[in-house]
Design a protein that fits this description.
The protein is built from 3 helices and no strands. By secondary structure, the protein is mainly α.
Amino acid sequence: MWDNRFEEILRQHLPFLPADQKLQEDITLMDFGLDSLGIVQLLGALEDTYGVRFRDDALTSETFQNPAVLWKTLGRISENAG
């Protein structure tokens, strides 16, 4: 599963996710309010927090489909950066 920083950042970009609702790994992020501007802001926050850069091949709608895919992509990018 993901770390607390990831969940905190992701929740900030999901305005329709109630604060008391558990963040499930398979929720559709768009259903909880993540839009194109939110993706750009989320991307910047993740890059700053984890010290990585998302390459063009990771900037797909599939990457931002749900928390599990996004976390897996972030992990892969972090491994390649290190």
